[in-house]
Design brief:
seven-stranded mixed β-sheet; single chain; 30% strand; alpha+beta; 28% helix; Acyl-CoA N-acyltransferase
C-alpha cells in the first residue's frame, strides 16, 4: 500500500486542489478512474473560490494527501470534513487522482477523515451525500461501514448550471442518497 502524508489545506492550496477534483469527476481525464461523473454531468465540479470557501469555513477542513519522495511532494487526494452538529460531521469533495484509483488510496483518505472528525470535532457519526445512480460508489462506501439513511436530497441543478455544466442524463435521475456511519 502506498504511504501517504496528510495535512490541512490553506487558501494557497486551492489552485492545486481544483484540477485534482475536476480530473477525478469530470471530463475525459476522469474516465481513467472509476469515480467519473462524465456520463452524468459536464462543466466545472468546483471552482477555486468554492474550494477557498470550504477551506475558510469554521469547523471545516480540507484534507490533502500526498506521496512524498526525496525529489518532491505530489498531491494525489483530498476531501472535505465539516462539522454539521455536535455529533455529526459531513464528508465531501473526495477526490483521488484517476490514474491512482483502485489502489487503496481512497480507503486511507476516508479512514483519516473519519479519525480527523472524531479527534477534532468529537463527533459520533459521519454523513455524506452520493448521487443515487452511482451504485458502484454507494457499494464502495457500504463496504466501509456506511449505510443508507433513507434520506434523499435534491441535486443542485442551478449550482451545476452556474458552473457551466449540464446533465448528460435527465436531472430527475440525479438526486442524492444520504449515507451515514457511526464512528
Amino acid at each position: 500500500m502506498i504511504s501517504l502524508t496528510f495535512r490541512t489545506a490553506t487558501p494557497s492550496d486551492a489552485p492545486k486542489i481544483q484540477p485534482l477534483v475536476q480530473s477525478a469527476y469530470r471530463g475525459e481525464s476522469s474516465r481513467k478512474g472509476w469515480t467519473t461523473e462524465a456520463d452524468l454531468l459536464t462543466g466545472t465540479r468546483i471552482d477555486i473560490p468554492g474550494i477557498t470557501t470550504k477551506i475558510l469555513t469554521p469547523n471545516s477542513a480540507v484534507l490533502l494527501a500526498y506521496t512524498t519522495t526525496q525529489e518532491n511532494e505530489e498531491l494525489i487526494a483530498c476531501c472535505e470534513v465539516l462539522q454539521k452538529s455536535s455529533d455529526t460531521a459531513y464528508f465531501g469533495m473526495f477526490a483521488v487522482d484517476p490514474e491512482r484509483q483502485a489502489g487503496g488510496i481512497g480507503k486511507q483518505v476516508l479512514a483519516y477523515a473519519e479519525e480527523y472528525a472524531r479527534r477534532n470535532y468529537g463527533v459520533k457519526k459521519m454523513e455524506m451525500t452520493v448521487i443515487g445512480v452511482r451504485k458502484e460508489l454507494i457499494g464502495w462506501y457500504r463496504r466501509r461501514g456506511y449505510r443508507d439513511t433513507g434520506k434523499r436530497g435534491e441535486f443542485p441543478v442551478e449550482e451545476v448550471k452556474g458552473m457551466g455544466g449540464h446533465a448528460v442524463r435527465d436531472w430527475k435521475e440525479l438526486g442524492f442518497v444520504v449515507l451515514e456511519k457511526g464512528l
